[in-house]
Design goal:
By secondary structure, this protein is of the alpha/beta class. Helix content is 43%, strand content 16%. It folds into 3 domains: 72 residues, no CATH class; 121 residues, Alpha-Beta Complex (Aspartate Aminotransferase, domain 1); 247 residues, Aspartate Aminotransferase, domain 2 (3-Layer(aba) Sandwich), CATH 3.40.640.10.
Length: 475
């Protein structure tokens, strides 16, 4: 151990009053700077005791830089922009829907100013936050009333708890689904206090199964749209209109969880059919629940629409206060719904709809041009080609259907493809693709011009690092 080197370590107080540490003290609490400086000084003392002497680490400049790096590593923003080239357009893990410019402007305006969240401008008295979006839901779906909670799972739980706590809810066995994040309908029903009454079989259920199960304790007839799977072949399930007719005959409310929920006919845009919310209200379903951030293209929210008296009961539920949304969600949702008032401009203004319907030829041109440019960047180290692939909507929407797309595919006999994928993820703006069959694949469907620039910049950085250390990307 070199005592002389240990004595060269500046004292903590000397460092804190030095010029180099003043920017740190301006940006962080003194206690935080001191805590991290002590950690670094102790590490340096340990290195010196082990004979690993690097006197360059002992200057005020070096120690300030070490503390700065450590603080940034710990406390820089964890929620960061990423580039989604996974091929899943509405990606749950990557934040789902991208909002329109109008929704983003509404968010900014609402965040920076007071707003009439619960204030009746006409009467000058307290109002209700549902009033902000209710007229839009009435116009777009034909519902009598609506309310908004923080996600669709909350919408289902709150509706069941309000309408069927302690009573039976009849549902088909084939609809007791699990979707992302281990969200299981049976468990949500149990948490709501409702009693699950399963009818039919996994693959075949008839309206007569519902009718046989009705008794004096039946509170609700429930249908759940299969968000992320489909039973094909020898299978049948009653139409919602049949369940509504049965409910009306027995004076039992009906409810449908649409999951994604679409406000428009997606077949107009070349996409497979998905239940339209307005159709369900027209069919006289009493309560319909769906998401705000899937096919609708807005912020994360759970939307409950239906009959006025039932929505009023849901609003009075004590759990409503725990599940309601704040002004930012309402601002973004209102702005998104307003776009649907003019469907002719929806494609232009709604980012997710643009991605879903992006012409294949446009994506092909992007992929082929990028493949040429990336080959020039990587040289002989990596081979990049434009290849056909298939995208999916994602987040439980249109689970079976895929959309023809184009990708850039990376292969190499020199470096590890898994490590290459990791280096793209480690870029300043992380680029998230997928590894499949020995290739690193980037689907181009949801990319922007800015994304393409970042991909090329990341490639140049990776090549530079590989050239300086040939072991850098080796598997």
């Amino acid at each position: 151990m070199d005592i002389q080197v240990l004595r060269q370590i500046p004292s903590l107080e000397t460092l804190l009053i030095s010029e180099q540490f003043q920017p740190l003290l301006n940006n962080y609490n003194r206690e935080l700077v001191v805590e991290n400086l002590r950690e670094i000084l102790e590490e340096i003392r340990s290195e010196i005791r082990m004979g690993e002497i690097d006197t360059n680490k002992l200057t005020s400049e070096s120690l300030a830089e070490q503390v700065r790096n450590q603080l940034q590593q710990k406390f820089n923003a964890r929620l960061v922009r990423v580039i989604n080239v996974t091929g899943t357009i509405t990606h749950t893990n990557l934040g789902r829907a991208l909002l329109s410019e109008e929704a983003c402007q509404a968010l900014t305006n609402c965040a920076q100013h007071y707003v009439n969240l619960e204030y009746d401008m006409k009467e000058g008295i307290r109002g209700h936050r549902d009033n902000i979006t209710e007229l839009l839901f009435q116009q777009l779906t034909g519902c009598e009333a609506s309310t908004v909670v923080n996600n669709n799972a909350a919408a289902v739980l709150l509706s069941l708890n309000t309408l069927a706590k302690g009573k039976e809810v009849i549902v088909s066995r084939g609809e007791l689904i699990e979707i992302g994040g281990a969200f299981r309908i049976p468990e949500v029903m149990e948490a709501s206090g409702a009693i699950l009454k399963e009818v039919g079989t996994t693959n075949r259920t008839y309206v007569s199964d519902y009718e046989k199960a009705i008794n004096e304790n039946t509170a609700l007839l429930l249908k759940v749209h299969p968000s992320n799977y489909r039973i094909e072949g020898f299978a049948s399930s009653p139409e919602m209109t049949e369940i509504v007719e049965l409910g009306n005959r027995h004076k039992i409310p009906t409810m449908e969880d649409l999951g994604s929920g679409s406000l428009i006919d997606l077949t107009k845009y070349g996409l497979p059919h998905e239940p339209i919310v307005k159709e369900r209200i027209k069919a006289d379903v009493d309560i319909v629940t769906f998401s705000g951030d899937k096919l609708l293209g807005g912020p994360q929210a759970g939307i409950i629409i239906g009959k006025k008296e039932l929505i009023a009961q849901i609003r009075r539920n004590p759990l409503m206060r725990a599940m309601r949304v704040g002004k930012l969600t309402i601002a973004a949702l209102e702005a998104t719904l307003r776009l649907y008032l003019n469907e002719s401009t929806l494609m232009e203004k709604l980012p997710m709809l643009r991605f879903y319907t992006r012409p294949f030829e446009e994506i092909r041109q992007i992929a082929e041009a990028l493949a040429v440019q990336l080959n020039q960047i990587f040289g002989d180290v990596v081979d990049v080609s434009a290849e056909e692939c298939y995208s999916q909507i994602g987040s439980g929407s249109l689970p079976i259907e895929t959309i023809k797309s184009m990708s850039v595919a990376f292969t190499s006999s020199t470096i590890s493809i898994e490590n290459l994928a990791q280096q793209f993820r480690n870029h300043e703006v992380p680029i998230i693709g997928r590894v499949s069959e020995g290739k690193f694949i980037m689907d181009m469907r949801s990319t922007t011009e800015e994304d393409i620039r970042e991909i090329k910049q990341a490639a140049r950085k990776i090549v530079t690092m590989f050239q300086s250390d040939e072991n850098f990307l080796l598997g």
